Amino acid sequence: MTKGLQMKEVTMIYGEGSNQMKALDHVSLSVEPGEFAAVVGPSGSGKSTFLSIAGAMLKATEGEVRLNGNVISTLTEKKLSTIRLREIGFIMQSSNLVPYLHVLDQLLVVKRMSGTIRREDQQFATKLLEELGLGQKLRKFPEELSGGEKQRTAIARALMNDPNLILADEPTASLDTKRAHEVVSLMAQEVKSRQKAAIMVTHDERMLAYCDKVYRMNDGVLTLAATS
Ligand SMILES: Nc1ncnc2c1ncn2[C@@H]1O[C@H](COP(=O)(O)OP(=O)(O)OP(=O)(O)O)[C@@H](O)[C@H]1O
Ligand SMILES: [Mg+2]
Q1: Cys staple from 6: which of 32, 66, 122, 132, with CB 3.0 to 4.6 Å?
Q2: Which intervals hold domain ABC transporter (predicted)?
């Protein structure tokens, strides 16, 4: 069984008839556990579409998506929602934290969605937050956090269910340079130490140094631009 994410000849067409728009054109890639891949490209080139398909949020028009060897591109919506919950961690442009939950509960709510919270979950959440430099912020609410702290909370939350795949769409868009470096270097560290397959869409060329491979998206066509 091949671990990680494999996409084979994935094409995405939005709309119908004369309104058709090819957002992805035979995209193939493979991301192994412990590999941190970046996708760059102009606005409208298909990056978010690509990430949504990789993350089982959107069904491709054609092609195959495999996660840890299992084909997910043909699953029903119900099965896909289970995969999203258990196998995939998302980090978005803005951290999307729940305003009335403190930092520790932002992580535990993920567990509550998939069952009950055990003592080990509390310990794991605390450990993750400590790793991400938030050990002093466990009982703080989002409005009491800086932009970088919010994004680091979002990274911890994405790791909470121990997913196989981490997907990040412009995770540094709302951060200054120093905080962007902090956030992405911590992400890279977690990807390595926890052996996650990870893909980050970014406009920020300075963040590419933390990634193992850089892919470029142009008009829905994905090409490998650099390998470190
Ligand atoms: N739900 C949709 N219905 C129709 N067309 C869409 C839909 N979502 C995206 N598109 C189109 O598909 C193309 C790719 O969009 P996508 O959001 O993937 O680009 P992107 O590379 O993420 O851009 P950005 O850098 O601005 O976020 C664009 O032309 C967009 O207008
Ligand atoms: Mg986008």
Answers
A1: 66
A2: 5-228
Task: Work out how many domains the chain is built from and give that number.
Answer: 1
pLDDT tens-place values along the chain, 228 residues long: 689 999 999 999 999 989 999 999 999 999 999 999 999 999 999 999 999 999 999 999 999 999 999 999 999 999 999 999 889 999 988 888 999 999 999 999 988 887 889 999 999 999 999 999 999 999 999 999 999 999 999 999 999 989 999 999 999 988 889 989 999 999 999 999 999 999 999 989 999 999 999 999 999 999 999 888
Distance 126 CA to ligand 1 centre (A): 37
CB of 3 within 8 A of CB of 166? no
* Containing structural domain, residue 87: 5-227
- Do residues 4 and 66 lie in contact, with contact meaning Cβ atoms separated by under 8 Å? no
Q: Is the CB of 73 within 6 Å of ligand 1?
A: no
